[in-house]
Amino acid sequence: MPKLRVHNLSISLDGYVAGPDQSLDNPLGVGGEDLHTWIFDTDYGRGMSGAAATGEGGIDQRYAVEGDVNIGATIMGRNMFGPIRGEWPDHSWTGWWGPNPPYHHDTFVLTHHPRPSVEMAGGTVFHFVNDTPEAVLKRAFDAAGGQDVRLGGGAATVRQFLRAGLVDELHLAQVPLLLGAGERLYDGLGTLPGYSCTRKESSENVTHLTFTKQAR
Q1: 3-class DSSP state for residue 118?
Q2: Residue ranges, the chain, pLDDT below 70
């Protein structure tokens, strides 16, 4: 059965997945870039920035790559798509990633202010949806054509799907730093019954924790 998966979600020791005050100058919030140094040090991350590969591999590289395997659609929150809040002033903003985003498939952006879908180079199509997690996930599974769906950030979006019990796998990359403010993942989640830690590995940079929803 296809799964809903969260991958490479960097998180501080105090539970923040982004810093405060997201803006064009700070797309990950103030201090948020420090959460992602580990992935940009991998060949996967170097490829995203156009830097040359080193071929060194390692645990972090393996986890970075696994996040793209068998993914046929993506769901993300509006905060991950961009810094604009409220009504869209126009439709000129098409994401942080330029004309050819890294998704290359249907990508569903959760927002209270829907707008027409946007087709990008490389096969990415952004759909702006205002619906329940269950309804959005059904659309994503249909678009994925039998493959898994990847759930991106931000924290509020991941919490919403976790509370609904819809996330099958949750991979957190725990970074040894304290942010003190920003977008916190753990608030309001309760006990999350049915999830258990099924894999734990550490590199020099982060601890990789994978939680899996157990079959009932």
Answers
A1: strand
A2: 216
pLDDT tens-digit profile of 109-145? 999 999 999 999 999 999 999 999 999 999 999 999 9
Please tell me the predicted confidence (pLDDT) of residue 73. 98
> What tokens appear for 188 in the block?
């309001």
Whether the CA torsion 139, 142, 145, 146 is positive or negative: it is: positive
Hey, which bits of the chain come out as E strands?
4-12, 16-18, 71-77, 106-110, 118-119, 125-129, 148-151, 169-175, 183-184, 195-202, 207-213
28: CB partners within 8 A, 6+ apart: 18, 19, 22, 35, 36
Positive or negative, the CA dihedral 84, 10, 107, 133 is negative
Report residue 116 as tokens: 């027409």
What token pair was written down for 115? 């707008």
- 157 token code pair: 């979006």
For residue 19, which of 208, 154, 206 has the smallest C-alpha distance? 154
* Residue in the block written with tokens 């879908």: 117
How many CB atoms lie under 10 A from the CB of residue 185? Answer: 22
**∠ Cα 136 83 102 (to 5°):** 60
The whole-angstrom separation of Cα 208 and Cα 67 is 13
Please tell me whether the overall predicted TM-score, pTM, comes out greater than 0.90 for this model: yes
The residues near 69 (Cβ < 8 Å, ≥ 6 apart) are none
Q: How far is CA 77 from the centre of its chain?
A: 9
- Chain-centroid distance of CA 29 in Å reads 15
